[in-house]
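Notebook p. 47: complex prediction with zinc ion.
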Amino acid sequence: MASDPSARAPKGTVDMLPATARVWEHLLHTAEGLFSLYGYEPIYTPIFEHTDVFVRGIGEATDIVGKEMYTFEDKGGRSITLRPEGTASVVRAALEHNLTANGQSAKLYYAGPMFRYERPQAGRLRQFWQIGVEALGMPEPSLDAEVIALLVRFFEAVGLPSDRMRLSINSMGDDACRPAYRAKIAAYIRDHSGDLCEECNRRADTNPLRTFDCKNDGCRAVMAEAPLLRDELCEPCATHYAAVKAYLDHLGIAYEEDPSLVRGLDYYTRTVFEVQAEGLGAQNAIGGGGRYDRLMEEYGGPPTAGLGFALGFERTMLALAAAGVEVPVPPVAEVFVARAVAEVAGDAFLICDALRSAGVAAEIDHQSRSLKSQFKLADRLRADYVVVVGPDELATGQVTLRDMATSNEERVALGDLPTIVLDRLGR
Ligand SMILES: [Zn+2]
Ligand SMILES: [Zn+2]
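Predicted complex, C-alpha cells below:
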C-alpha cells in the first residue's frame, strides 16, 4: 500500500491531521475575532475560477501565471484554474455583485487553500493555506496604515513576539510614475546584463521590477546599486507614502523601508508591505500585501481603490515553532466519564450525555476498555477531569470526580456534577 503512489497525498500536499487542523482553526478564530474589530466580514469565493481572472489580475509575466498555475480544461471546454491566491477572486466577486457600486466600500476577509505548482520545500506547498483581507473602495492612506497594523496585530495575537518579526514597507508608485521607472530599470538591466542571471536578463523585457526579487548573490549585488522607485515617485504617490508612514508612526507600528520590496504581482500600486519572521531562512515572509487601485479596471470595472494582505498558515506555524510559541489547543475531552464495572455502563452513558448538554466536552469509552485503559484514554484526550462511575457510589447518588492535574479525588452528588464541573473549568 505504502509503495503505491495513489495511496499517498499528492506531492506538495499534506493531510492536515487533527493536531495541525486545531492550530489552523485557532489562527482562523483569532483572525475572525480580530478582523471583525476592524469591520471586516467573511467572503467565500470558488476555489477555481476562469483562468482569465488570474491572467488578467495577476499578470501574464509573473511567475505565478507563467509557471505555477494549476490550469485545466473542464468537461465543457472552459479553461479553469485552481486559485493561486485570494485577491483576484475577491475583486472579481465584488465587481460581479456590485459591492463597491455608487462609491460604497467593502471590507472582506477570506480563508482557505490556494494552489501553486512549485518545488515543495519547508513552508511551501502546492496546496497551501492562507487567510487574507481585502478592503475595497478606500483610497486614503489611513487605510493602508490600518491594514498594515491589522496584519502585525494578527501575528501578535497568535503569540509571535514583536522582536521576532520585521515589517518592511515600500511604495511601488502608480501609472503616472512607474512606467518611466520600469523603463529605467530595464535599461539598467541591459547595461549590467553580463553580471545578471539569465532569468533576470529575460525580465528586462517582461517584468523588470522582479529582478529585485532574485535570490542570486550576483544579481542582488547589481540590483543593490540600481535606481530606486522611492526617488522617482510622482508628487501624489510621494504624499500618499509619507502619510502612510506618518499614520504608522502614530500607531507606534515599527517598520523598515525596503526600496527593493516589489512583491511578485503586477497589480500592486503604491503601498506594498511584508512581515518577515526570524528563524525561517530565505523563505521568511509570513504575510504581506499591498494596494491595487487598478485591479478592478482589469476586469472591466470602474476605477476602484483596493488594498489587502494575505498570510500563510504553513510559514506562520514555522515562525511560531521557531519562536518556541505553543499554540493553545483545547483538550479533546474536558471530562472523561469512566465506568468501574460494565454493569454501570448505562449510568455512565447518561452522565456523559448530561455533561455534554451542560456544555462540557465529555467523552466515554465505546470499546469495552478496562478501568485502567479508560484512564489511559482520558490522558490521551488530555481530559482535565475523570468522573468515575461505580456501583457503590451510585447507590448513594454520587460519583467520584478526579482532578487529573493534582490527582485529587472527591465524592460529588450526581445532580450537582455539571454545575461543579463547569465551576472547576472556570465557566
Ligand atoms: Zn537573477
Ligand atoms: Zn505616482
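Notes: Residues 18-37 form the longest helix (20 residues). The longest strand covers residues 106-115.
Next step: compare against the earlier run before touching the bench.
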